[in-house]
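anyone else get weird line breaks when pasting these?? whatever heres mine. first is seq + tokens for prot A
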Amino acid sequence: MTEGAIPETAPAVDPDMTVDNRGTGCASGIARVQRALEDGEGGAILRIRSTDRRAKREYAQLAAQTDHELLAIETDRSGLFRTEYTTYLEIGGE
């Protein structure tokens, strides 16, 4: 999947779980996401909030390499130096 193909608008459903990785390092953040994906039921929507600029690339790769579906990645530039990314994944394995 190319970055241009990633939807940039949140799905019209409420997330079932949220992982807040804003301000955390990559290693601890991905561990939290993996735990949530393992704990969640198939078909559940996981929202991941992040300030890591690699979020768009890494979560798209995660979805491409697993049975989880990338629904959207929103980008919000809420300040001069801060960009937040909100990723929506549908957990696979239903």
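and prot B, same format (seq, then tokens)
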Amino acid sequence: MKIIPPKPFMIEKGNRAVLLLHGFTGNTNDVKRLGRYLAERNYTVHAPLYKGHGGDPVTLIQTNPVEWWNSVLEGYDELKNRGYDEIAVAGVSLGGIFSLKLGEERPTKAIVAMSAPALAKSIDSLQERIIDYTIKYKKLAGTFDEQSDHPLEIAEKYRMPALEYLQGMINETSEKLQTIQTPVHILRGLRDDDYYCESADLIYNSVKSRIKSVKSFINSGHILTLDQEKELVFEEIFRFFEGLKWNEEKMNISQIS
């Protein structure tokens, strides 16, 4: 079976811009429905695809978190270059911690962090994500073999050297959360691992934003944008953005230059 790889997407509507960030081993399909929901309500949305994501596992393990982060910055700069002065960011899982990192390093209108990791986590648990991704990809491609594709064999063959660096990046971002003062809305699914629910509390208690809040979804797991309460999640994010005071005038790059 031929797999059609996901792509970055941009939907230009209104002058309010939102950068949408997917998770580790995920892709832009994680946030595509959210993007359409916001675009239908006059928001411009852009979702970059992290380098190495959305394709075969060999390509994924040959990339590293710095390259994924650079994909985020390129997405942010793309909106800036198109004249959007105020940019909000919303991300799920790794995209959630990347959203917070962006808030630490670049001007952001607001941040929505969904199921964001903010505590120390074992490298083995991250490696399990690679194993799951590889098995799912092989099954989708029709190349999965019960004998040769045992999880232990996959763990040995598809080991990602950069996972320790990824955990370090998460830790570093968490240590700087107190520098964030822009509005922050933290979303979590109560059917997710306790690790992510505890991370939500850490994020809330650490950021110095005057406007900050936590919302829990009782019947949702990790990827809130794809789970059974996704429509409620979309509405929650929309209401949060609607409550902000936006500058409705889009900058004209040609006039500036």
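btw re prot B: The CA atoms of residues 87 and 107 lie 8 Å apart. The first strand starts at residue 9 and ends at 11.
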